[in-house]
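For this section, I looked closely at the sequence of one protein beside the tokens encoding its backbone, which the following lines show:
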Amino acid sequence: MTIDDTRRVLTDYLDRHDENCLAVDAVFHDTASGRQTVGRDAIGQMLEWMYHGAFEAHAEVKNLIVAEGAGVVEADFVGTHIGEFEGIPPTGRQVRVPLCVTYDVRDGAISSANIYLQATALMTQLANGSADHPA
């Protein structure tokens, strides 16, 4: 994958949330929990739940760094807690949590991702409603 090809896949995925940018057997790894989600459909369901089930949220992208076959996104996960998350019932609280995702891209699709969401910051914001960076 050239840098331009890699950038095109990642920007299509980030801009349109197009699951077709994921390899059928893609693997997403949540580094905070250790959970792995395998497969395009399962990843789509996991992200739908996170962004529109547990939260009504979006990622505010700050930086995208691209190399041949790899990319890194720095963003903030921003939204409202609307559904149960890690045993916490909906609080209606606003959250803004630093997020970084590394991507591997091969054969025109994202093959894997490592998700680095600051879980401690998220849980603190859900528990007491105060964010270091209010939404």
